[in-house]
Specification:
- Strand 3 and strand 4 form a beta hairpin.
- It is built from nine helices and five strands.
- It is an alpha+beta fold and 256 residues long.
- Strands 1, 2, 3, 4 and 5 form a five-stranded mixed β-sheet that branches.
- This is Transposase DDE domain-containing protein.
- It comes from Thermobacillus composti (strain DSM 18247 / JCM 13945 / KWC4).
């Protein structure tokens, strides 16, 4: 059965209803802002997460927890201590606080400032993150891309249409070990080491991440660049119109 299209316009809310919604939203924001705590620098209560409270409140204001739950799905055992969506949130906190290595993530298990700011009393061990990431597949990457796209769309709707410049950059990530897909390529610092070549696209000036691609270290800078640009166009909100693209890519030249 195909639902028939109707011409009924949505019911307009009364002035009183709109005012009640605005007041409710103001009360919600006020309650979140009240959670901010004064930060002092002394020798009794040392934490690296003192200013993290502003990011934590921002995440709460935009409803990031609910967004992750809506977009990210991973089957887990019934007795799992940490839901998949919460592990994604914790990994985001690690990245925001500069803990990009597994060996550094356990620091948040005993940081009182982080526990107070986030309200968590139990933080995953780094081995939990390793096992979680090992279960992810290509479909989960697509889910995260959709999450990022939703965040961009929500931000774009808060302003008017605007022209944007896209910056594309190729970055070499040196690897120490035997990682899948790593090859020897151009490496300005560690010559002869296997690496990945990360291609990133973001909005110039404001820095919103639009797209990211991981390639073997010997990938030519022009490889699939056009398709990469087309994917960027598809991910941009309709309110953002591309004015120009700056690309910093390394290209191999074959001399005859």
């Amino acid at each position: 059965m195909v639902p028939q299209a109707t011409n009924h316009a949505p019911e307009q809310k009364t002035r009183r209803e709109r005012r009640m919604e605005i007041l409710a939203e103001r009360r919600r924001i006020k309650q979140i802002v009240k959670k901010l705590r004064p930060v002092t620098f002394d020798n009794n209560t040392v934490t690296e997460a003192g200013n993290f409270q502003f990011l934590a409140r921002f995440k709460e204001l935009i409803g990031l927890d609910a967004l992750i739950e809506d977009h990210f799905h991973l089957e887990q055992k019934a007795n799992c201590v940490y839901p998949a969506s919460k592990l994604v949130d914790h990994l985001l906190d690690c990245a925001l606080l500069g803990h990009t290595r597994f060996s550094h993530m356990n620091a948040l298990q005993s940081d009182p400032g982080y526990q107070i700011v986030t309200g968590v009393d139990r933080f995953p061990d780094e081995s939990t993150f390793r096992g979680f990431l090992g279960k992810l597949s290509w479909s989960h990457l697509i889910q995260l891309v959709a999450l990022n796209r939703d965040l961009l769309a929500r931000k774009a709707r808060t302003g008017e249409k605007r022209l944007v410049w896209i910056d594309i950059d190729d970055t070499v990530i040196t690897l120490f070990g035997e990682q899948e897909g790593a090859t020897n390529g151009y490496n300005p610092r560690y010559h002869g080491r296997p690496s990945y070549k990360i291609r990133v696209a973001f909005i110039a000036g404001s820095g919103e991440l639009i797209h990211l691609q991981v390639n073997p270290g010997n990938t030519n800078g022009m490889k699939d660049l056009l398709s990469f640009v087309k994917e960027i166009e598809a991910m941009l909100p309709p309110e953002w119109i591309i004015e120009g693209i700056r690309a910093d890519v390394r290209v191999k030249l074959a001399l005859g």
